[in-house]
From TrEMBL:
Entry's transmembrane regions: none
One family name in Pfam for this protein: Glyco_hydro_1
EC number(s) on file: 3.2.1.21
PANTHER family the UniProt entry points to: GLYCOSYL HYDROLASE, LP05116P
Catalysed reaction equations from the record: Hydrolysis of terminal, non-reducing beta-D-glucosyl residues with release of beta-D-glucose
GO molecular function, one term: beta-glucosidase activity
Lineage: Bacteria, Bacillati, Bacillota, Bacilli, Bacillales
Family: Belongs to the glycosyl hydrolase 1 family.
Protein name: Beta-glucosidase
PROSITE patterns noted in UniProt: GLYCOSYL_HYDROL_F1_1, GLYCOSYL_HYDROL_F1_2
Source organism, top-level taxon: Bacteria
């Protein structure tokens, strides 16, 4: 027996997202999404890359499922492209879009893999964006309608549902920082978007219960572990704001039905308020069956007047960095999930994404010796094991990502896969990290 041993029912999986892997952007009636628009706008994405072809998983999903099966995972997290189901966001269902996901889900089930579906991983139908997107509350109704169609179509087959992936990215990264589609730079707009996405999440959960759909439903937030550089009150406050921007701003409404007041006050000084309508907070805080956490990194910060939105500057204390320039902070995973458990209670937790980007080189015999990525995984698996030992209800882990794919604004240059994608031939080649994870899953543990 390995000396790091996971519970028998621990769920090992990998994750992907529709726009990042599917390609086939005009096939079988798919409508355009905000990511088609964004990536086709020169200068928005590195090298002007786009997801027109991506990994071509729309045609090669059987190969992907075979890779998953060989890897030995119990579950696969993927996302559904809303514009395949409703090309205009609302209206008639596009049967061919549903058909594609039926094939994927059936292939997974036949391989003994549980499908875990994310309803919104950023590809909003462009037609809805044209009417204001997530700033417009009508998008909430459109989302719930789309969710209902999916729940009914896959009831009994998909047993784990995630409403939203990373509402922080959907809101602040895309509408305040402007790095992702639709590329706006407006704080008030970003706050509106965050709020409306969370209301849409709550309404979808309500619908799920009303319909009596089997399985579990939750949402995924991307949490970051940010610590004050010193114990000076100013550093503590600054780091707290910075952390709350990613964490509490989303976790508090989800679990407590309120926004953190110190952040509401802070945003007010920037001229922004939350557009809460009666009943919204209760809707957002619908009980969920699990919380998904995407964790990649963390860091340290200190007070600096005028720095960023929160008077906080990051301090570089010498972490190893990935090719995204993100700190490798495995201990941060332990800290952040311990904090989630302490602050928000016993709701089961899934790590719905964790992984690393490094510069990979394909050897002449199609191998990738991604030693650093393997090491990243090993370090984070150790923290998962510590968490479970400490009583944190961590139920599963999804590696980001099954395969190299369209890394949003970074295009194809940033690789996160445990399988290498050759973008010329679309061939897939498992990396060393894939074999490491295969071994971990096989033993349900490893030796340290
Ligand atoms: C994310 C996204 C992924 C990214 C990954 C690496 O949730 O941010 O789910 O799509 O590719 O995080 O940046």
């Amino acid at each position: 027996m390995a000396n790091i041993q996971f519970p028998q029912d621990f769920v090992w999986g990998t994750a992907t997202a529709s726009y990042q892997i599917e390609g086939a952007y005009q096939e079988d009636g798919r409508g355009l999404s905000i990511w088609d628009t964004f990536s086709h706008t020169p200068g928005k994405v590195f090298n002007d890359d786009n997801g027109d072809v991506a990994c071509d998983s729309y045609h090669r999903y059987e190969e992907d499922v075979a890779l998953l099966k060989k890897l030995g995972v119990k579950a696969y997290r993927f996302s559904i492209a809303w514009p395949r189901i409703f090309p205009q966001g609302t209206g008639d269902v596009n049967e061919k879009g549903l058909e594609y996901y039926r094939k994927v889900v059936d292939a997974l089930l036949a391989a003994g893999i549980e499908p875990c579906a994310t309803l919104y991983h950023w590809d909003l139908p462009q037609a809805l964006q044209d009417k204001g997107g997530w700033d417009n509350r009508e998008t909430i109704d459109a989302f719930v309608n789309y969710a209902e169609v999916m729940f009914k179509a896959f009831d009994g087959k998909i047993k784990q549902w995630i409403t939203f992936n990373e509402t922080w990215c959907v809101s602040f990264l895309s509408n305040y920082i402007g790095a992702h589609a639709p590329g706006n730079r407006d704080l008030q707009l970003a706050i509106n978007v965050a709020h409306h996405c969370m209301v849409a999440h709550g309404e979808a959960v309500r619908k799920f219960r009303e319909l009596g759909i089997s399985g579990e439903i939750g949402t995924t937030h991307n949490l970051y572990w940010f610590e004050p550089y010193t114990t000076s009150p100013q550093d503590i406050e600054a780091a707290r704001r910075n952390r709350a921007f990613n964490n509490e701003w989303f976790m508090d409404p989800t679990f407590k039905g309120s926004y953190p007041q110190f952040m509401v006050d802070w945003f007010k000084t920037k001229g922004a308020t939350v557009p809460i309508l009666p009943g919204d907070m209760e809707t957002i805080a619908q009980k969920i069956d699990f919380i998904g956490v995407n964790y990649y990194s963390g860091g340290f910060g200190r007070y600096k007047e005028g720095e960023g939105l929160f008077d906080c500057e990051e301090v570089q204390i010498g972490f190893d960095k990935t090719y995204m320039d993100w700190n490798v902070y495995a201990d941060g995973l332990y800290k952040v999930l311990s904090w989630v458990h302490e602050e928000y209670g016993d709701t089961p937790i899934y790590i719905t994404e964790n992984g690393a980007c490094y510069e990979d080189e394909l050897t002449a015999d199609n191998r990738v010796h991604d030693v650093q990525r393997t090491d990243y995984y090993r370090k984070h698996f150790i923290q998962c094991h510590r968490l479970i030992g400490s009583g944190v209800p961590l139920k599963g882990y999804f590696a980001w990502s099954l395969l190299d794919n369209f890394e949003w604004a970074e295009g194809y240059r940033k690789r996160f896969g445990i399988v290498y994608t050759n973008y010329e031939t679309l061939e897939r080649h498992p990396k060393i990290s894939y074999y490491f994870i295969q071994d971990v899953i096989g033993k349900n543990g490893f030796d340290v």
